[in-house]
Amino acid sequence: MRPFTYERATSAQDAAAKAAAMPGARFIAGGTNLLDLMKLEIETPGHLIDVNGLGMDQMVETPDGGLRIGALVRNTDLAADKRVRKDYGVLTRALVAGASGQLRNKATTAGNLLQRTRCPYFYDVNMPCNKRKPGSGCGAIGGFSRQLGVIGTSEACIATHPSDMAVAMRVLDASVETMRPDGTTRAIPIAEFHKLPGQTPQTETALEKGELIISVALPKPTGGTHIYRKVRDRASYAFALVSVAAVIGRDGKGAVALGGVAPKPWRVEEADALLPKGAQAVSDRLFAEATPREDNAFKIMLAKRTIASVIAEAKG
Ligand SMILES: Cc1cc2nc3c(=O)[nH]c(=O)nc-3n(C[C@H](O)[C@H](O)[C@H](O)COP(=O)(O)OP(=O)(O)OC[C@H]3O[C@@H](n4cnc5c(N)ncnc54)[C@H](O)[C@@H]3O)c2cc1C
Ligand code: SF4
Question: Distance from the CA of 130 to the center of ligand 1, in angstroms?
Fold first, then answer.
């Protein structure tokens, strides 16, 4: 690990302003992803700004009947919150399907959204990786791609986003609330928060330099049946090969988002509209522009079967 300096921020704006002003500065929350990457020298920040003491660990109801989740709310606390369990069950289910109890006790809402890909070539500093070192090439393309993406990928990068929580946030139409270094705030719809790789896979989100996530807002609950189904190589403690987050009403209408298949939580609103027609129609639309590779083409059939199972469960 490279040497670095460390400080505790005194306010959200202080944190954002310092992160923008100091080259190589990074925020640290739970540290469960950033510290691993620092040990491997994949991330090499010269300065860490600890945002744990900023009071961003509260959950409050919003005036429009939704829920505002502080950026520092731990995954365990978010999953266990009574309001989340009652009105946003898909989020609780996605959270408890991720990582382990110990990790969820440390992992934060913002850190989870910003965790980096688990592409094995990204983690191997001896291999080329356009995300880790822009312009160096991609070890995964032409390599072993079983875990990697089948849709939304590019010729520069086929990595997937690993978060379970983010897939549930996407199906719930969450909004990421931030503070810029000048103290202004904005709300970024989760659909626009994570970026597709294109030719710049190193740019993973819509965040600007120094911009701090302060909270994530969920809209008013919509009711319906909430399901999160995660398919993985082991029964627990493994990232998704494919996951399906769904909120489906009694009339068969609703929304579906997928994890494990794309560089961001994958949802296509036109596919949602096809839900009453069944899994085949939904899957065909979700994967209409898919570019699978030999190793990972199985994910499309796996997703289709998982969607079918989820729709059947929602019908009761
Ligand atoms: C062994 C293992 C298994 C795992 N399994 C799963 C799994 O199955 N499913 C899953 O979804 N996840 C899994 N995870 C990932 C885990 O959920 C993430 O590491 C965790 O959510 C990251 O949160 P954190 O608070 O620790 O982030 P940190 O490591 O502190 O930060 C992550 C990134 O977010 C940035 N950041 C943090 N807070 C803010 C903020 N407020 N504003 C702007 N930037 C910020 C940091 O600068 C850093 O770049 C696993 C992790 C491990 C180590
Ligand atoms: S798929 Fe993306 S993250 Fe993986 S090696 Fe290629 S460029 Fe790097």
Answer: 21
